[in-house]
Amino acid sequence: MAKRRKDTEEKEDKPFKLPKFDEEKFLKKERRNIKATYLSVFFGIIMAFICFGFWALMGPENSYRWYLVLFVAIGDAIFLRSIFNWRKLDFSDFTGKNWFTSYAMYFFAWLIIFIVVINPPIYDDENPKVQLAVLPEMQEFGGTVQIIAKITDNAGVEKSGIKLAIDGTEVDSSMYSFEDNILIYTYENDEIKNETTLDYTLIVKDINGRETKSHSGSFKYSDTTIFVPEPPYSDNESIRPQVGSATTIKIKVNADVNRVYYTLNDGEPINATKDEDYYVTEPKYIGWDKVKGQNVTMKIFAEKTYSFDLILDKMPAQMNEKEFEEYANKILSNTFNNTIIDTQSYYFKVAGETGVGIEDPPEAEGSMIRIIQVPGFEAMALIAALAVVFLIFKYKKKDRRK
Q1: pTM of the predicted model, to two decimals?
Q2: What pLDDT, in 10s, does the model give residues 337-347?
Q3: Full strand arrangement of the beta sheet holding 138-139
Q4: In this structure, which of 51, 90, 179, 376 has its CB flanked by the most CB atoms within 10 Å?
Q5: Which candidate, 162, 148, 172, 164, places its Cα nearest to that of 200?
Q6: C-alpha–C-alpha distance, residues 107 and 263, integer Å
Q7: Residues 128, 151: contact at Cβ < 8 Å?
Q8: Where does residue 296 fall: left (phi above 0), alpha (psi -120 to 50 degrees), or beta otherwise?
Q9: Shared domain check, 138 and 104
Q10: Which of 90, 125, 160 corresponds to the end of one domain?
Q11: Which of 125, 159, 194 is the last residue of a domain?
Q12: What is the pLDDT of residues 57-92, one digit of tens each?
């Protein structure tokens, strides 16, 4: 026991010696690693310009070109080893970490340079993108028609690059607005008294001279855009059909609209409900109670609402209060509406029944807004982080086996 204690004390008294540091070997290894990094970045830059050539040759019509150049960049990473051999790098003691660093430096150098060279001001092969809507496509006499367009481009579009024509006549640029990529033109013509169809054409050219294909269509003026087929009515106010709580009033709207409503003697608006080919309503709804037992003048309105697509990096449910407020403002700035006012008034006599004006009218339906979620750079960072974690665990596992 005493001997064991003595051996232990001798071991504890023995001074600790640091392993000998081979400075020359360390510097040689570090120079090799730095040179490998430079070569990886240089190769990534060269491959970015090669892929740019493929990108330009394939043209914007090829919807797979991004996937193809990405495949080329990843596939050609195998030549990195040959480049190291060519430059006579001793990578015999390269670890998994060294190879991962080299490939990562190559890929991100390629990605950064490639994104720079395929975008303005260096290169532009993208035509302006146009979302266009006409509000409404069929209007009553005396009403207005709005032509709205959301114009986006990677280089930029100026007002001078927009050409809008109605029935072959170019519209002066002072007649429409173009702000925040939104074009708004309001057509009005009080002289149209017969059914008329008007054609429109929109062509957009960006600051680099790249031009869209012609966006064309037509809109129509007609006195049958809105009418009431049932119950039969007369323009003569002295001969008015009587309507009761169970009477169905059918409203025919020949335009594509989001909401139909009417007023009684210029009162509060009451919404009608879509039912197959008609919008329908009944005097049982609140609002009719104010004209119970009276003669009434019905005026009908139809509203067309349109919202451009919203491109977001977060869905509304993922947003904080400030982000949601910005999202709401985007909806307002991307939503437009125009109203059709029926030129015909309709005259009815309302029965004095107890069932008149006792139910809540239907709620108005809003326009559909299409939200497009695009992954931001944080998605790329997440993918890269997952790749790093995978490789770390993979090489840790290899080290354990060794």
Answers
A1: 0.71
A2: 999 999 998 99
A3: 138-139, 215-221, 196-204, 162-166, 169-170
A4: 51
A5: 164
A6: 65
A7: yes
A8: beta
A9: no
A10: 125
A11: 125
A12: 888 778 888 889 989 998 888 898 888 888 888 777
